[in-house]
Design brief:
Phage tail proteins - horseshoe like beta roll fold; 14-stranded mixed sheet; 22 strands; Phage tail protein beta-alpha-beta fold; 4 domains; single chain
Length: 360
């Protein structure tokens, strides 16, 4: 029988009355929320779980979280007693803590090198599943920036996604690098679903402005203005958005930034939530985060490949064993251009039709 196992202080705990284990592309630290409750027994062994304890969460022998207990809340009443336990991956320290770098600058490092330099003091390893790109000549740490904010900023500039492996390591990967064994189909394995299609953060045109260094020969200014534009063909009314380049710009980098901004915002406008019974696919493997999956649901007006951006494994007295997944278009992570069939995209912008277009 499938169980959520908690390993703490050399002991194994299971039999949760209510439990959720969540992994997400949008939150680098996986988390768990467990509740155990038993009828009152004065002779029962006391739970010795406290904040700061190292812990490990496994389902079906697979590690989902290796980290620490954040909160432990024992409780009791005249009829029962129990404990509520919350914790996160080791990577949570990168999210919570400031990046401390001598001179506030890292030089001559790739994304992988930057991630390793910032993660090492916290005992967090880094695994690169793909080439992390060219070196940064100079990467400045912003005042007050957390270690994760700095890593995420570097990853965004190299168009990479950062996730975790369940063993407490950071993983540098491409978006949707694997595919789920099963599609998600209305009337077959989808137990419940909802959709949200949001145009509020999409614009008809993106204008990126920046400054580029010029040859200063005494006749030209030391910097020149750079401006590039990209359109979203699915936004029909006039909605311009001006953005400042994050780094020193060139015509090529500004154009790339404008196109990626248009594609990313188009991708983020589609959010699907699906719940299935059980924790595993037909091949016996757990539903994976950062995997492509086909979603077919006429009631949600969608028949498209989406990326699983979040997986929440749950168990409760009312719903039993379930998996809730958040799904979105891969373009939302700036790397989806290679994952969607090119013939369906606009040749100039790389933005495909909105998912509900085929149902109109």
């Amino acid at each position: 029988m499938s169980k959520i196992l908690l390993y703490v202080n050399g002991r194994i705990y299971d039999g949760w009355k209510q439990a959720t284990v969540t992994r997400s592309l949008d939150a680098i630290a996986g988390k768990f929320d467990l509740v155990s409750m038993d009828k009152w027994d004065a002779a029962a062994e006391r739970w010795t779980i406290f904040p700061g304890n190292e812990c490990r969460i496994e389902i079906n022998g697979k590690a989902l979280i290796t980290g620490y207990v954040d909160k432990a809340g024992p409780f009791y009443d005249p009829e029962s007693h129990g404990i509520k336990i919350l914790g996160r991956d080791k990577t949570a320290d990168l999210v919570d803590c400031s990046a401390v770098v001598k001179g506030s600058e890292l030089r001559g490092l790739t994304l992988e090198g930057i991630a390793k330099a910032l993660a090492k003091p916290f005992g967090v390893g880094v695994v690169a599943q793909v080439d992390s790109g060219p070196v940064f000549q100079s990467f400045a740490i912003q005042p007050g920036e957390t270690a994760w904010e700095a890593i995420e900023r570097a990853a965004r500039q190299r168009f990479m996604v950062i996730t975790t492996d369940g063993e407490g390591n950071l993983v540098i990967a491409d978006i949707g690098a694997t595919r789920a064994a099963d599609p998600l189909i209305e009337g077959k394995n989808i137990k419940a679903a909802s959709g949200e299609y949001d145009y509020s953060q999409r614009f008809s045109e993106y204008i990126v402005k920046g400054q580029a260094a010029a040859q200063n020969d005494g006749w030209e200014p030391a910097t020149v203005a750079v401006e590039s534009r990209a359109a979203d063909p699915n936004v029909k009314r006039y909605r311009p958005k001006i953005l400042n380049a994050e780094t020193q710009a060139s015509d090529g980098s500004a154009s790339n930034r404008a196109q990626l901004e248009a594609a990313a915002r188009a991708g983020k406008s589609t959010k699907i939530t699906v719940t299935v019974q059980g924790w595993t696919m037909s091949n016996g493997e757990l539903w994976p985060v950062n995997a492509m999956v086909r979603v077919r649901s006429p009631l949600l007006s969608i028949d498209e490949d989406l990326v699983i951006s979040e997986v929440k494994f749950g168990v409760s007295d009312t719903s039993g064993i379930t998996t809730e997944m958040q799904l979105t278009r891969p373009d939302a992570y700036l790397l989806g251009q290679s994952k969607v069939k090119k013939e369906k995209k606009d040749k100039k912008t790389g933005i495909g039709p909105d998912p509900w277009d085929t149902f109109q």
